[in-house]
Q: What sequence folds into this?
């Protein structure tokens, strides 16, 4: 992948991430020491608020490196497994397997992605039964003395073309009868019988970093995972023949909270880029002096600050859970997740309006600078009092890569669904909400007064 024209620049961006972590200047912030060995900070199991704050700082440094464009950077699934390891008893007979896998990931700084959703086609099993065809969702097809054999498809393995391992599981609840599909395991990306079916690479069509600065460097790709009789050793099996547990491992451990705290922080880095771009494109034309535009920018800044406060509150009001550990406040995390997935389209649309027609006023590409006559005309007529022609073109190329390119379209879709459909995200908030407390507030108020006497009604 380091030389393939569809993936090489994103691979370099991931290499930059590992180089940044390895830099001695970043060692204290990006790593921690346990039992005399040093590990990446996202494998830290938090026992106090300081540990949680360090985890946040690690996520922020990683997210800032890609301006929030890498959703499934190595700290995402690593955080899921780390959260699971703090309450491994949930895994029952496979608890030791989970703990050993956590230790393996931590010791080898493993980059794992995950595929935890059934393919859309599998939602109509009757179709396949009528055609006498196997249902496409991944399942166990054979048990052997040294492990399981799995076949079928899972989605959506974002980042898989760069990863070492794939965590296969079930983030959506299964029916109690779906025992074969309940398999949760980890497999190397180069496992025999495993293939990745990648969507179209956007990086491949990026002519240069100047023309498509985000597409060129940060297309993490998404892949369907296809398994054709892939062997999974027993030591890499974490759930088997338990449809309820297959989902519970994410919400009965801090896994979902650890992993989606990273998502909140990642989106915050991206949001800072969006807000900065919104301000810069208005400055480029002088529109920032218009009161209505300043009001819009102020609203964007307020929303960015609100998300930052939500992230900080997840540590400030952290939970003592599970026993002996601290976990980010789950309700605040889910509130942040809801804001990110629900609000991204509106934020992009606001940036699009502020760009106006400026993104279409630029020449086709920067090659105009290599023609003496065209260069003179471009520098003369495309400048504004606020900004030179080349800098203005560079800014609007970046803005277009955020709001209008194919890469931007992928992010529009990704931000809506990376944590599941909206009803799934809101169901997390429903599950964690203190409904008894809410009801008590209403009941206390109702109980503070009764039916008035008739004399009071007469006076009324």
A:
């Amino acid at each position: 992948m380091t030389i393939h024209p569809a993936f090489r620049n994103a691979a370099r961006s991931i290499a930059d991430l590992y180089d940044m972590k390895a830099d001695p200047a970043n060692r204290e912030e990006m790593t921690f020491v346990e039992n005399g060995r040093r590990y990446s900070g996202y494998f830290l199991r938090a026992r106090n608020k300081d540990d949680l704050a360090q985890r946040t700082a690690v996520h922020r440094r990683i997210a800032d490196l890609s301006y929030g464009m890498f959703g499934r950077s190595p700290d995402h699934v690593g955080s899921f497994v780390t959260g699971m390891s703090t309450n491994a008893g949930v895994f029952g007979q496979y608890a030791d397997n989970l703990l050993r896998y956590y230790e393996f990931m931590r010791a080898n700084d493993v980059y794992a992605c995950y595929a935890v959703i059934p393919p859309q086609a599998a939602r109509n099993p009757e179709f396949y039964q009528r055609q006498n065809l196997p249902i496409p969702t991944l399942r166990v097809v054979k048990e052997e003395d040294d492990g399981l054999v799995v076949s079928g498809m899972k989605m959506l393995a974002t980042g898989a073309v760069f990863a070492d391992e794939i965590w296969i599981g079930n983030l959506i609840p299964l029916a109690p009868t779906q025992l074969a599909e309940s398999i949760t395991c980890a497999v190397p990306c180069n496992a025999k019988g495993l293939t990745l079916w990648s969507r179209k690479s956007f990086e491949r069509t990026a002519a240069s970093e100047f023309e498509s600065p985000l597409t060129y460097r940060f297309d993490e790709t998404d892949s369907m995972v296809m398994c054709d009789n892939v062997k999974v050793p027993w030591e890499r099996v974490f759930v088997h023949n338990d449809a309820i547990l297959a989902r519970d491992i994410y919400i009965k451990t801090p896994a979902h909270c650890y992993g989606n705290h990273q998502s909140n922080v990642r989106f915050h880095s991206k949001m800072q880029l969006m807000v900065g771009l919104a301000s810069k494109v208005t400055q480029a034309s002088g529109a920032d002096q218009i009161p209505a535009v300043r009001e819009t920018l102020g609203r964007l800044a307020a929303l960015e600050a609100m998300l930052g406060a939500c992230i900080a509150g997840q540590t400030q009001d952290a939970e003592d859970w599970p026993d002996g550990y601290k976990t980010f406040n789950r309700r605040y995390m889910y509130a942040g997740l809801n804001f990110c997935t629900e609000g991204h389209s509106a934020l992009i649309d606001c940036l699009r309006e502020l760009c106006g027609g400026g993104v279409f006023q630029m020449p086709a590409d920067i090659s105009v600078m290599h023609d003496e006559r065209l260069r003179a005309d471009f520098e003369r007529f495309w400048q504004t009092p606020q900004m030179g022609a080349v800098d203005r073109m560079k800014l609007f190329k970046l803005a277009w890569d955020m709001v209008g390119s194919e890469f931007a379209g992928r992010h529009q879709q990704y931000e809506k669904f990376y944590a599941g459909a909206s009803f799934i995200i809101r169901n997390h908030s429903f599950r964690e909400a203190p409904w008894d407390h809410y009801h008590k507030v209403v009941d206390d108020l109702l109980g503070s007064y009764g039916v008035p006497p008739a004399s009071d009604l007469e006076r009324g």
